[in-house]
């Protein structure tokens, strides 16, 4: 499927705009949250590193925004449908402290990003490449794993609390992704496919959620937490 052919299809165009819109708002809020988490950083080095990660997230937002502009779409209009569900997710999963904020950025956001990477398999090559570039690890994983494991080593009791937090995050993140896909007809159609474009059948959906679960378990293990 070439980009020209894909965007000649109004249904496909609406789905791609939805995908870019939800990702753009997700990156914008990620920038805000990481910048806010930097205020709680216990050391100056931690504060500086989080500020760098926040800057990277904003750069990703700019890339997605610019792609929407290239498509002749107002980025604010594309993001608007996702403000309420994403804000609700973040309200329900507000971290209580610095460590919970780190786990949320790594585990919760990681699962959501995995889901959208799966969705990106069904878009045109240029859009897919942008999505994969935006979700490439920018050093966040190493930073979070180092800080969380060090904290647990110093106080092993933290492990149980953070493991429970991680399990709550995965449930909330999966529910959020499913709600967004179900509520937005273009995204649902993208996953379902059409006569000339393959989509996900029930078996493929099952395999997708198996991959999402396995990736989540790997992240929790890297943190030294029980999934």
TrEMBL record:
InterPro entries noted in UniProt: Ferritin-like (IPR012347), Ferritin-like_SF (IPR009078), Ferritin_actino (IPR059125)
Domain Ferritin-like: 11-193
CDD domains in the cross-refs: Ferritin_like
Annotated TM spans: none
Name recorded for this polypeptide: Ferritin-like domain-containing protein
